[in-house]
Design brief:
275 residues, Rossmann fold, Threonyl-tRNA Synthetase, Chain A, domain 2, 2 domains, four-stranded antiparallel sheet, 10 helices, disordered C terminus, binds magnesium ion
């Protein structure tokens, strides 16, 4: 497999490798097996915490590296880097917000698993993992409009942002998945998992949503996985064109990785036999 050396794959999880509805990656098993047989490192890059990613990986052993909190924290073979803001800064900003505004404020970092479970609907064991945060903290509060403005201003004073997600306002930094990918590449090179010359490395990235755009823009081969329900978003990849997978989730993941590996190895017959 001479042609497949120097390859590395970065993947988003929810809606990309994992099915949007049942979180299964089973449909991607053939491509995952092929990556493993060819010693191609696969890295997870997700909004999940390192604790959540470690729990997935200790069960399934899919990943050679874990990038959590949207690029804020990286773990490759227990070498941990935190491109995101220091944990102490997150805590200091949350404390300052709590003092300044009119309603009580907790973060996942200061809440018990039971409290996080109540706020999120997660089972308590998963809530505990979601609470182990390095560089971002969803707030549990019931703010007025004035509180939100005030909290946003305080976040900025600490060099942070207050970002409204689906359900929570999250205190976080300016991290992005694209920058984390560059750092992870250097860590993999240092660990001897990739060639030392950047020109000898080919990066493949797969994602489904706007927060994956930075990662796809930095990849040599970008793959957009269509969302399962609703319209497929147009991602700003800075002029780069992504391949669009033929199906959502692990199905599309599987066929696109297989076709990229076929193209790169240019020996589809021998690969079919090897499978
Ligand atoms: Mg996603």
């Amino acid at each position: 497999m001479q042609h497949l050396t120097g390859l590395v794959v970065f993947t988003d999880l929810d809606g990309t490798l994992l099915d949007h509805d049942d979180y299964s990656w089973e449909a991607a098993r053939p491509a995952l097996t092929r990556l493993r047989k060819n010693d191609i490192p696969l890295l997870a890059i997700s909004s999940k915490t390192l604790a959540e990613l470690r729990a997935i990986n200790s069960q399934h052993h899919l990943f050679a590296g874990l990038i959590g909190e949207n690029g804020g924290v990286i773990d490759i073979n227990d070498d941990i880097r935190q491109p995101g803001p220091p944990t102490a800064t997150i805590d200091a900003a949350r404390t300052a917000i709590a003092k300044a505004i009119s309603v009580p404020v907790a973060g996942f970092r200061t809440s018990t698993a039971a409290e996080i479970a109540t706020a999120t609907g997660l089972p308590p064991n998963e809530a505990a993992l979601a609470g182990q945060r390095n560089c971002s903290d969803p707030l549990i509060w019931a703010p007025t409009a004035k509180d939100i403005t005030l909290a946003g201003n305080i976040a900025r004073e600490y060099g942070l942002k207050l970002v409204k997600g689906g359900r929570f306002y999250t205190l976080c930094g300016e991290t992005d998945k694209g920058a984390a990918m560059q750092t992870a590449l250097k860590m993999l090179q240092k660990a001897g998992k990739l060639p030392t010359g950047r020109a000898d490395i080919t990066t493949i990235a797969l994602g489904d949503s706007p927060n994956d755009a930075g990662m796809l823009a930095h990849a040599d081969i970008a793959v957009q996985i269509p969302v399962k329900h609703g319209p497929v978003p147009t991602l700003d990849l800075g002029g780069k064109t992504a391949r669009i997978a033929p199906a959502p989730g692990p199905d599309g993941w599987n066929s696109t990785i297989n076709s990229i590996l076929d193209d790169l190895s240019q020996t589809p017959t021998s690969i079919t036999k090897a499978r």
